[in-house]
Amino acid sequence: MLAGRRIAISTLEELPPEAGVDRESCRLVGVKSNLCLPLTVGGESPLGALGLNTLRAERDWPEAMVSRLQLVAQVLTNALARKRHELSLEESEARLSLAADSAEAGLWTLDFGTGVFWVTEKARAIFGYPPDAIVDLPLLEASVHPDDRDLVREALERSRRLGEAVDVEYRIHRPGDPDPRWIASRGRLRTGGSGAPGHLTGLSIDVTERKRREEAHRSREALRAAGADLAELGSYEVDFVVGVTRVDDRFRALCGLPPDREAGLEPVRFWAERLHPDDRQRVLDLRQQLHDGKLEQLSVEYRFLHPTDGERWLHHMARVSGRDTDGRTLKSYGVLRDVTQRRKSEESLRRSYEEIERLKDLLQAETDYLRGEVRAIGERGEIDGKSPAIARVLHEVEQVSRTDSTVLIQGETGTGKELVAQAIHRLSRRRDKVMVKVNCAALPAGLVESELFGREKGAFTGAMTRQVGRFEVANGSTLFLDEVGELPFELQSKLLRVLETGEFERLGSSKTMKVDVRLIAATNRDLAGEVRKGRFREDLFYRLAVFPIRVPPLRARAEDVPVLVWTFLEEFCSRMGKKITQVPRKTMDALQRHPWPGNVRELRNVIERGAIITTGDTLRLPALDEAQPEAAPPTTLADAEREHILRALESADGHVKGPKGAAAALGLNPATLYSRMNKLGIRPRRQAENGFT
Question: What are the pLDDT digits (tens) for 275-323?
Fold first, then answer.
């Protein structure tokens, strides 16, 4: 029966064994024969069945009778199907009405033949039509905004001609409402029979509030996009749940993201791979802290290696927008901005500030130096004399002054080594800047380094301010190191480095300074002998002695004494307001014969003393012996031996034994020397330092 086939049974015996229950049921109610006809519509499953039974006698079911009875079954089937359809239609209309009311939608049907709408009350309320107004196409067109009328006409025309569904949004003007309302209409065409005009059935909804929200959202998005564009921000969002990264065009440009790496989480991996090696760990650690909830917001600047633009500086801001119950990050978003130009400007400004600060310190140091060092210098120069010895010196000065070579000036004390250095500087290309002078013997050993190379604030106890060193002051000029042989051994290597590379560090600073300084050194010591004794670096000696100049003692150029005498007299007379015009021949001869152990300095002092005691126009001098230091009283043999041994120990740096020890220098056996030292009360320094007796 469910398969739609009829069942005809003339006798109960025709029922199959499987129908035993049905056979017993029929016997109980007295059924002799049975005919069942399925009630089907269009080949669908039966709606039911029409059963015909005989109770008096068994009978057959001829085909003609069955055909007539099937007509009866069909009538019943049609009646049942129609009833079911009516019930279903009523249910559908009830559902549609409920849905329309819930969606605040107005239902309507347009008859294309008459151009008249059937509308619900809700539809009239939406469009603002009066209850008694006939709603037709002219009324609809009159209420539509002028800018949207063509849009509505075209949608209705395409539906009428082509059978397309209507799906259109447009504005209308309602009576008494100053602002237009947005309407969304949807409809489908139901064609009439025999080519008759169809009916368009649909609904309309007032979507004004949605449109306003969309417009506000678009405005906000446009404002955000304009702000992001103005700020040159590239944005991104990472969804870790589905493994998707969304980026905008500016982000792609800022990172140089290739198209083949935009899928999934590839943009994140690409970004991490291109972080500068010096910044990568710092940035990734901060990002991890953000994901772990230790940071509310990430804000960091770092270097990024752009595939085509090279190294760029980026400012990165990010936040987490969602976490699961375990605190794991579900989504994050952020923005990037290229700050390369700003960083370059800041770096340039920082360097400018440093340069200004350096120049300020340098200017202050030069000012302080000039206040203490500047004195009047005669236009004709400071070196006077016409002897061959001094002429040779002046020739050497002229030769070396036009170069930047290092000069080592050697000579006894008082011979005028500083004057030679000034002459070299005055004839050099650096003459426009002051020559800076440092007397290495006049400075305590602990202050020589800071004096030469400068110091930072707090470099050592008592360093309350930053100090610019003489090498910085002399940058572009000449530095004169007087008594260079007194320079502490530990600083000689640093001086050698400056001579070779022009680089050094301030005391207490790791920043390397670079200067252009021409060095002139002077000494009254035998530096070669100091090198042999191990008290002066051999490499520094050869670096200083590129061009050695030896200034002769005054006793080696006696013919220059008269010139110097008259030069000094002119200076002292001008200063003292005296007029000395004569120097006796006997006096001048005595001055030329004198050995002058103090050289020119001693002669100057003698002439100054003579100018002081002279009352007339003829120079009077004290006895030359009065100017000599008093001779020390003769020492005992033990004192002389003790002094000799101490000097030998000093030359050997405290060593007694060995090829360079004091015993070898004195020609004694070490045991013999130890015995004499013990007798004279001399304690070996090396043993004392190591705790021996």
Answer: 999 999 999 999 999 999 999 999 999 999 999 999 999 999 999 988 8
d(CA 285, CA 625): 84
The span from the CA of 612 to the CA of 606, in Å, is: 10
- DSSP-assigned states of every residue in 179-207: S-EEEEEEEEEEPPGGG---EEEEEEEE-
| Domain 554-627 in CATH 1.10.10.10 | no
Q: How far is CA 152 from the centre of its chain?
A: 58
Percent of the chain scoring above 90 in pLDDT = 33
Query: The tokens of 78 are what?
Result: 């049609």
Q: What is the pLDDT of residue 425?
A: 93
Per the structure block, which two tokens stand in for 54?
């005989």
Q: What is the pTM of this model?
A: 0.43
Identify the residue with better confidence: 299 or 194. Answer: 299
Written in H, E and C, the secondary structure of 510-540 is CCEEECCCEEEEEECCCHHHHHHCCCCCHHH
pLDDT at 678: 79
Instruction: Please indicate whether the domains covering 7-82 and 103-213 agree at the CATH topology level.
Output: yes
Residue ranges of the domains in the chain?
7-82, 103-213, 231-329, 385-548, 554-627, 637-689
Q: Which residue has the tokens 């000036």?
A: 409
Residue 67 has pLDDT above 60, yes or no: yes
Write the CA distances from 527 to 171, 255, 458, 521, 540, integer angstroms.
105, 64, 35, 12, 10
Contact between residue 289 and residue 295 where contact means Cβ atoms under 8 Å apart: yes
Q: Answer whether 311's CB lies under 8 Å from 344's CB.
A: no
- pLDDT for the residue numbered 216: 84
CATH number of 231-329: 3.30.450.20
Q: How far apart are CA 347 and CA 206, in angstroms?
A: 60
User: What is the separation of C-alpha 353 from the centre of its chain, rounded to a whole number of angstroms?
Assistant: 19
Using alpha carbons, select from 321, 300, 322, 314 the residue that is nearest to residue 251.
314
Q: How far apart are the first and last CA of the chain?
A: 133
The CATH number given to 385-548 is 3.40.50.300
Measured torsion, CA atoms of residues 529, 532, 533, 537, in degrees rounded to the nearest 10: 100
Average pLDDT value for residue range 637-652: 75
- What superfamily does domain 103-213 belong to in CATH? PAS domain (3.30.450.20)
Query: Is domain 7-82 in CATH 3.30.450.40, yes or no?
Result: yes
